[in-house]
## 1
Amino acid sequence: MTNIDKTTPMENLTIGGNIYKAGNAREFKTGDWRSVRPVWIEEKCKQCGLCFPVCPDNSIPVCKDSLKRTDYNYDYCKGCGVCAKVCPFGAIEMKEEGVDE
Amino acid sequence: MSIRERLSGNETVATAMKQINPDVVAAFPITPSTEIPQYFSTFVANGTVDTEFVAVESEHSAMSACIGAQSAGSRAMTATSANGLSLMWEMIYIASSLRLPIVLNLVNRAVSGPLNIHNDHSDAMGVRDAGWIMLFSENNQEAYDNNLMAHKIAENEKVQLPIMICQDGFITSHSIENIELEEDSEVKKFVGEYHPEHYLLNKKEPIAVGPLDLQAYLFEHKAQQADAMRAAKQIILDVSKDFANWTGRHYGLFEEYKLEDAEIAIVCMNSTAGTTKAVVDKLRENGVKAGLLKIRVYRPFPGEEVAKALSHLKAVAVLDKADSLNAIGGALFADVTSSMYLSKENVPVVNYVYGIGGRDSTEKDIESVYTDLAEIASSGEVGNPYRYLGLRKFEK
């Protein structure tokens, strides 16, 4: 969307840091902040629909037609763990980032 | 064809604003600038202007509202003094960082405390590093003319910085003097209309103004601001030239009064320059080669040009109507001496802090400065460079 990054010289920046398009939050991957990640255990999931409404980052994609959730979009998930807390079936486990199983 | 009138400094600014007809004026009253939004609100009430007048609850809100309005593509103006400027301090920095060509009339008054409502330059000096263009006005005519040129300077594509027009509180703001005004239609023709490329509340281009600007970006944005301030110097000269072609009144970065063949000179700003001109005339009649350099454009500071203009003198006194309380002299003194050092001009310079809190500076006081300068010029000895004018103090 934008072609401004940490290597852009001052002549190519907009003045005052103004952004001349909407929706650039999509480019900012808040998933980088994560230290624990939610892991979806599909076999245990009953598709009850309690997890995705409480996600603050809209990181649980839901299929429009079937209204069933699919696996996480880890681009924006910050690992807050609310989905895991809310799941009544233990279908979501929080695992440490960067630890290989 | 100019119109002859008699107006106080505040009435003059309100008149200029009336003719400019800005989209928004958001202001809060403070002595001695109160009359500016006061007279202007009469024009609003009478339908003489189309301006949306926002009566805000504080000066911080005044500048905030101006920033919002200007970001949305409208011309915003306001006025304040002293602690009113102090209260809007964070927004002053934001107005410049967001590159919004807001026009502020600053009626110079001492910043408290203790409480003093009279003229000195401490308010302006407190924001001299905020990235605003700062023009100082000797009298009502200059305040008027600077206002007429303000938008063309600030809105220029290479500049896009806010601008403040200074005048001395009470001395200029409340004194009625003769003035030449221009016709409404001529003013509107000169000032033109404001059509920024990007603005808020535009359905076709939703924008974000003033987003988070972390370590990777703030430095470059500040450097853009610095470039804009440097570019402003030439733009001010260009606009002043257009202004002279229209009105016949000439302005530069500063005024050199009997300076060309002078041996001793004073550097000062605002109304004191008027007093100094009278003293220079008197001294010249007695064969003293006295001169004056009156700074008009304080920011961007025309260092190279000032150093050149002072280079032939035998002694210079810089008068500061505010003390920087830094043990090494006032703000104008710092700017002048550093410019002279860089230009390798070895002219003896002394600093006089004077006029604090509206302490009157008379022709006699100014004359004493020239007497001191004559002594420095003949002896070659500067002595104490940090002096006071008009201060009651035990002499050692």
## 2
Amino acid sequence: MVFSSLTFLLYFLPLVWVVYTQVPLSYKNLVLCCASLVFYAWGEPVFLLLMVLSIGMNYAFGRLLGMARKAGMRQGLIKIHMGLAVGANLLFLGFFKYAGFVTGLIPGLAPLSVSLPIGISFYTFQAISYIVDVYRKKVEPRRDLLNFALYISFFPQLIAGPIVQYSQIEKQLDRHPAGFKMIDRGVWRFIWGLAKKVLIANPLGRLHTEISAIGGGSPGMAWLGALAFTLQIYYDFSGYSDMAIGIGRLFGFRFPANFDAPYTAKSVTEFWRRWHMTLSAWFRDYVYIPLGGNRVSRGRHILNLLIVWLLTGLWHGAGLNFILWGLYYALWLILEKYVFGDWLFKHSFISRLYTGLVVVVGWVIFAQTDLGAMATYLGAMIGLRPSAFAVSAAGPSLVRFLGRFGVVLLAGLIGLVPALSLFRERLFQRAKPAVFVIELALGILCLASLVSDSFNPFLYFRF
Amino acid sequence: MTEQKHKIPYTGIVIMIWLLFSLVNAFWPARAESEREKRSLARFPAVTAARLADGRFEEDFEAYAKDQILFRNALADLHTGLERSMGVREIRGVFITEEGALREALTLSPDLKPLRLPAYKAVSDLFRAGQRPVTLILVPPAAEICWEDLPCVAGGEALAKESRRARESLYSFETGVAGIECGDALRTAFEAGTKVFYDTDHHWTTAGAYAASSVIRQALAGEKVQEKETGWEFLASGTFSGSLSSKCGVFDREDVIEIARPNAELPILVRVSGEDGYRTSLYQRSALASPDPYKVFMGGNYGEVTITTGAGTGRELLVFKDSFFNSFVPFLVDLYDSIHVIDPRYYTGNGAMLLLEHPEAELMVFYGQQTFMTDEALGRLIPEVGL
């Protein structure tokens, strides 16, 4: 189930919210937990077992860590215990996500076919954050299984984040009143997130798919496709995060923000402080800093960056292009840190242009999972015409793409302007009637778009 | 910045609307069919342990939710209207002209290799297997004939020229396959103000078929076509929204179907394989009241239809066709004693047997050019003949 499906919008969420608001306080978390498990099981019920196993396993690990500490066990043993717990989580993640990829790299070995449970990257990272925070004594091990299960499985952020570290939500699990203001903001945030996903990201996704199918086509088309993906992934991901945060508020939870106008960044370093912030925070807190961060020698620091970005790439997908993507960013981060970072900060326009180019090309690497297709596409961007693209008056053309997608593209670009976010916030604060109209209008438009996507005529007389 | 307090609970109203809509939507009686999309709508899926376990129930439920949502047509119209108001002139492969007519986008390959097209390969095989010439007639697409009407993003005259070149390359590729070019006749009629293609469908109109008939009849029989005033009567017989409306979701207008009736009507018998008895008309008027009024022409598409006429010409025709032929066949009945009409999509017999059963029949392949470019059914029917 996804947030932008009619099943979720018109059946699941209304039902869950009504039941949640009507049950006594002591049952609210039970309702949320059960709803989350149903949400996760929807479409892939077999992976519910994995989720339940993860919950049970990490709950037990956390309790055991607490008991070991209380029993006065040596720190070294406790650390081993923590390591085993983290290792078990990584084994889960590693098997389901990377077994096929790794076996595919071994010559003579048939790649293992393993289905990827949805959201496993997210909830495994959340579980690891819990284990490590318990180890670090940042939090106490959770005693009640129900609320721990809710932390791991809570449906708003289960399948696409934000990644919520346990310490950020610990107290909210016990008490999360959903007052009028929370719900007010939640609805506003959710509607905008839905609109970003359905009205901007989905059409631009189609544009990118069509241009990718012809290997990029002409240079103009290839850059258009790259721009489309750049916008698509932002609106899709940030839209989903907004929906998750909005839904969380409906139930009284405050989740951390995940995006902060990333395409306004003046450096790659800044970009990664604004993009998927919860993932960056997770890697910083649980990988980069334990490795020593930047408080080490230059050589060690560069190694730390390479490790973190290799893992970041791998986290995004089991593919050579994702590894390449991670290392691509590592390279730019290292160059900014040790070569031209200072110069860059003094030249605002050039730094923005440079960052934009690096990011757009980075997304091409990210989007093309086949290395050959990636090379073809990158080649198309510099004028090397792909074999899949034949120039035809009937075929795809830049003008034709702009005719179909130009307005959405323009809306996507305008939506990046920070002033618009400020305006939106001001509107929310000061003009409730306008907010009401906008919420209704966006809701109806999103429904219209979802229905239109399902338009499926049977062309009886096609032949 | 502090929020203003309002007496009206706007958010509460939004939530109430959402909940009410969801409730009514969940319990509204399901609809069986979509007249617009010409298909059955998904019903509530069967709940079984197996379907829940493998995800089929969940997938079908989403299809059900999308098909049965309240105000479905209105929502689809809203989306299409919004796109058009933003200047979008191409939706799902259909161009929308300034006047609101719909024209299907073309599929062309600039370096067309005829024998790589399954349908053309089949025509070539038909020539070899039948050991007699094959007449190939491809109806040009509306986007070629009416190219000036298209939005500027469509490709304009260059598109029209490329479409014509593709057709001409097929006509001239093989000596035993003789093409009859009817594009000029359609173009002349279009320039004279005749509506040669429907506004909501990819087919040509009866007037368009008539415009092409003069040059086709001339090529087949060396006979001048009779003038409309003395030869044919065109009767408006119904309205419909065609395939392109269904494809792109634009239902601004309807088309009028005309039936062409010759002033000197020949007696004919029409036998549809699988049906008992005979029909005495090429038209099935009862179809005009059905969801698919285009079926008025020959009653729709059948695997095999045999038309026996009193033409007395001693000629027999075996034609492999698509639906473009349905509205054209009345203009051929006086040229042949019998016409065997085969629709490869629905014919379940064997092409080699057909050739053996009709050893004297003239061979024809009659298709809309767009369909021909992507058709694979013809290739499955005609036996492959090695060179």
